[in-house]
Amino acid sequence: MAEPPLTENYHKETATRRHIPAHITFWDETLRDGEQMPGVHFSAEEKLAIAEKLAEVGVEVINAGIPVVSKDEEAMVHRIAHAGIKAHILAAGRTVPGDVEAIIRTGATHAAIFVAASEVHLRYKLRMSQDEVVKATVDSVRRAHEAGLHVAFVTEDTTRAPMDFVEKLYLAALDAGADRLVVSDTVGVMSPITFRWFLREFSARVHPKDWSVHCHNDFGMATANTIAAMEEGVNAPHVCVNGLGERAGNTSFEEVVMSLEILYGIKTGIKTEKLYELSRLVERLSGVPLPPNKALVGYNAFSHEAGIHTHGVLRNSLTYEPLQPEVLGRKRRFILGKHTGRAAIQEKLKESGISPTDDQVARLTELVKTTEEHKGKELRNRMVADYQNEFEQPGLKESEFWTLAGQVGIERPKSP
Question: Looking at residue 8, what is its pLDDT?
Answer without folding.
Answer: 60
